[in-house]
Design brief:
By secondary structure, this protein is an all-beta fold. It has one domain: Jelly Rolls, CATH 2.60.120. Helices cover 0% and strands 59% of the residues. Strands 1, 2, 3, 5, 8, 9 and 11 form a seven-stranded antiparallel β-sheet that branches. Strands 4-10-6-7 form a four-stranded antiparallel β-sheet, with no helix packed on it. A hairpin with a 6-residue loop joins strand 6 and strand 7. The N and C termini lie close together (8 Å).
Length: 123
Amino acid sequence: MGDYSDVYPGPNGLSIVRSGAGRVLAISVGNPGTTHALSSLGGLLVGWCIRENTGAAAATCNLYDGGDSTDTLLAALALPAGAMSAVSFAPSGIDVLSGLFFSTVSGQVRGVVYYQMDTGVPG
């Protein structure tokens, strides 16, 4: 497969960028007090780059394996004012069994979650 880059609408008005051989999605997350069901499919959490958006106050956000904030916690981020967290688990990733859910717990964050969905189609 050749390389390409496509942008298409995602959940809750977010944009999803798919690049390379279609294996990893860059999914926009953020906005104050928001929750996003990023995927209903299992796959691999490959990383994220998330920052506190205002520069004036701390923020916290969580990523879950599942469809809401009662499911299995994968990551809990606590960001001081103006701070950023950039993490890569490539190439192996973290197994996600039931979909990926993002929640802004407090403050304002903006960023991208890198996710490889299990489509059942060989790459």
